[in-house]
């Protein structure tokens, strides 16, 4: 049994390009410093003395900036290539993290958060395009999962360390986040030379022959609607759920940080092996609804179980398994519809769907809490998850259920 497990893990990680590992290492360093966002709502309400509604505005500004950054990042990546966009986004984001830590008024926090999010989220479509560039169709889903593993390993470290730092001095979070961003930018330069990663410029006639607009792909746009519903629920994990844990169940910052780190550790332990075992056996839209429903059940558990530490752990487990069963296959679906000339567009639209949810999530969550309390919020998230899962299922049966071959990637 032990040897079988070891061989399973070896198989899950074998065959990936060296550049894919380098990209994941850059992400690991970057996300190990991710400490501001998980504690931003608590920071705004507890230290800047904003109301919960004002904190929701701040988080929505992160979402607006994310939307703008994803759009610009996708456009610039298709035009100039993924390498320069990644470096510029990491460097500028790190500098603005440092500036954000000095802001005190609502308007200055909102403005700086918006600019920061534009810079940070221009990185996402560029990075997704880079993963596609350095991987093969057979390793693509696992390459994206490797990136997610790096993000979540960094998240585990950042969540645990961030919880400790927040208990000492919240302002240190901004310094750590800023300098890890800057270090990641120069690590990218060191590990992955720019040569070979520069965008190949096509003549207009060649470009017209291969480019199909992602903005006219009706199936993909419908997929993004259901993705945005899912993401609107998912973002409550980072916005209102920590506040609920703190104010209603009276968890400490350190315990909240530990719960956040458990999310990352479970992804590290499970996701690559699971994706290796089931990737290509069924269409991605078969797996995604299951993950969405598991996440919805995780939120509903907040109402079904008493507010103990074990309950918090169980909630994180269901949310994490739901994430593992859905997000890697969402990536597999969007990349399957792209080609070499429009990957930035598809990646940008996918990031924009998440950015739209990042705008809607704190506003919707704050409204539902103000309207009828946290209990109403958790039930509402369960219902929205059911709607999202149903949408993905209907899309699959209407458009893809008759396919007998696994979904192939066009790049």
TrEMBL record:
InterPro entries tied to this protein: MFS, MFS_dom, MFS_trans_sf, MFS_Transporters
Topological relation to the membrane, as annotated: Multi-pass membrane protein
Location in or out of the cell: Cell membrane
Transmembrane segments: 21-40, 52-73, 80-100, 144-166, 219-243, 255-274, 286-305, 311-334, 346-364, 376-397
Domain Major facilitator superfamily (MFS) profile: 1-400
The entry's keywords: Cell membrane, Membrane, Transmembrane, Transmembrane helix, Transport
One Pfam family per UniProt: MFS_1
Matches recorded under PANTHER family: MULTIDRUG RESISTANCE PROTEIN MDTH, RESISTANCE PROTEIN MDTM, PUTATIVE-RELATED-RELATED
The protein's name: MFS family arabinose efflux permease
Organism from which the protein derives: Mucilaginibacter terrae
């Amino acid at each position: 049994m032990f040897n079988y497990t070891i061989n399973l893990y070896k198989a899950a990680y074998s065959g990936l390009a060296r550049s894919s590992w380098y990209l994941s290492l850059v992400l690991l360093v970057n996300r190990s410093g991710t400490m501001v966002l998980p504690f931003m709502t608590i920071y705004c309400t507890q230290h800047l003395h904003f109301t919960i509604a004002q904190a929701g505005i701040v988080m929505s500004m992160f979402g607006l900036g994310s939307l703008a950054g994803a759009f610009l990042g996708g456009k610039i990546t298709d035009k100039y290539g993924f390498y320069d966009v990644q470096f510029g986004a990491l460097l500028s984001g790190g500098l603005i993290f440092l500036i954000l830590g000095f802001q005190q008024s609502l308007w200055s926090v909102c403005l700086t958060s918006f600019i920061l999010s534009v810079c940070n989220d221009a990185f996402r479509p560029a990075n997704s395009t880079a993963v596609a560039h350095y991987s093969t169709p057979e390793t693509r889903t696992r390459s994206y999962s490797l990136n997610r593993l790096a993000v979540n390993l960094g998240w585990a470290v950042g969540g645990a360390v961030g919880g400790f730092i927040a208990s000492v001095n919240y302002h240190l979070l901004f310094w750590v986040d800023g300098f890890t961003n800057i270090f990641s930018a120069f690590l990218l330069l060191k590990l992955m030379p720019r040569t070979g990663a520069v965008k190949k410029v096509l003549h207009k006639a060649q470009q017209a022959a291969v480019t199909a607009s992602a903005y006219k792909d009706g199936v993909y746009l419908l997929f993004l609607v259901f993705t945005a519903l899912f993401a609107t629920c998912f973002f409550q994990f980072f916005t209102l759920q920590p506040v609920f844990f703190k104010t209603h169940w009276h968890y400490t910052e350190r315990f909240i940080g530990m719960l956040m780190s458990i999310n990352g550790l479970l992804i590290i332990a499970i996701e690559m092996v699971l994706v290796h075992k089931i990737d290509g056996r069924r269409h991605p839209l078969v797996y995604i609804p299951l993950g969405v429903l598991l996440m919805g059940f995780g939120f509903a558990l907040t109402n079904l179980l008493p507010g103990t530490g074990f309950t918090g752990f169980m909630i994180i487990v269901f949310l994490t398994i739901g994430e593992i069963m859905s997000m890697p296959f969402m990536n597999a679906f969007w990349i399957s519809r792209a080609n070499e000339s429009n990957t930035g567009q598809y990646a940008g639209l996918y990031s924009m769907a998440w950015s739209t949810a990042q705008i809607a999530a704190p506003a919707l969550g704050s409204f539902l809490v103000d309207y009828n309390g946290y209990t109403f919020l958790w039930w509402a998230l369960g219902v929205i998850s059911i709607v999202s899962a149903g949408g993905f299922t209907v899309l699959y049966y209407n458009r893809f259920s008759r396919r007998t071959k696994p979904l192939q990637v066009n790049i």
